[in-house]
Design goal:
By secondary structure, the chain is of the alpha/beta class. Helix content is 44%, strand content 14%. Strands 1-2-3-4-5-6-7-8 form an 8-stranded parallel beta barrel, surrounded by 8 helices.
Length: 275
């Protein structure tokens, strides 16, 4: 099996129903440390994969909603190592873990580069330790939005040695030739940022800052990408998911779920309403 093919298969299996597969995002340790396990179990039945955010003090790609959840999680003492330890306890391949979480979808860890370096360091042996920790914690894919493709080779190599993939991102202003290169270097899926802004902003269908319409942009990515294309940023409602049908393979839902959690609402019910 190629790196992270099981993630691609999970997304394509759900999107075969005619609607984008859903990939929910949550910030680990928000609003409380003990929230993570319950949130993952609740979201699992509706998710092709689950993206888990590592809190960071300066999340440059994220809007105020995820910024706020990151600050709260940091105040709670969340670190990258804590997250990996918690996931390892939940996804260990033993009977107790299977009973604890019987419908586990693939896990995708999203972290900026700073928490990675502060927790593990930047040398080859440090990256090897990170890759081993990801594998031991049941993480299938890693996303690092501020790590350029040209500087990601060593990390990608170490992750691949452990059977873990590295997701690459493209945006509406990425030239097509570069988008093709990025897509062919992406594992599991290609993360298609749908707006020229931060998370929680305009819905993809309303994005006007692209050279082509958002759906034409996604269509072009699907034509050149060897892995499923998942759209993210600004996807908050079932109508937004409806608008993406036929144009991408997956929809990443983040700020809307964080908003629901912050208001004491049920994020799993919100996600189920978008299926």
């Amino acid at each position: 099996m190629t790196i992270a093919k099981h993630v691609s298969d999970s997304i394509l299996r759900r999107s075969a129903r005619g609607r984008p597969a859903l990939v929910p995002y949550i910030t680990a340790g928000f609003p409380k440390l003990e929230s993570l396990s319950a949130q993952l179990r609740a979201l699992a039945p509706h998710a092709a994969a689950i993206e888990i955010g590592v809190p960071f003090s300066d999340p440059m790609a994220d809007g105020v909603t995820i910024q706020g959840s990151s600050r709260k999680a940091l105040d709670n003492g969340v670190t990258l190592r804590w997250i990996l330890d918690q996931l390892g306890a939940m996804t260990a391949g033993n009977q107790q873990a299977t009973e604890h979480w019987p419908q586990q979808p693939p896990l995708v860890l999203m972290s900026y580069l700073n928490p990675v370096i502060s927790s593990f360091g930047a040398g080859r042996s440090s990256l090897r330790s990170l890759a081993q920790a990801c594998r031991g914690s049941g993480v299938s894919l890693l996303i690092i939005p501020d790590l350029p493709l040209e500087e990601s080779g060593e990390l990608r190599e170490q992750l691949h040695l452990q059977g873990v993939g590295l997701v690459q991102l493209v945006s509406p202003v990425t030239p097509q030739a570069r988008a093709r290169t990025i897509a062919h270097a992406s594992d599991g899926f290609l993360y298609a940022v749908t707006v020229t802004g931060v998370t929680g902003g305009s819905a993809p269908a309303a994005a006007a800052a692209t050279a082509v319409s958002p759906n034409r942009y996604l269509d072009s990515l699907r034509e050149l990408s060897p892995v499923p294309v998942c759209a993210g940023f600004g996807i908050r409602t079932r109508a937004h998911v409806d608008a993406l049908a036929g144009h991408c393979d997956g929809a990443i839902v983040g700020s809307a779920l964080i908003d629901a959690i912050d208001k004491g609402q049920d994020p799993a019910a919100l996600l189920a309403s978008m299926v």
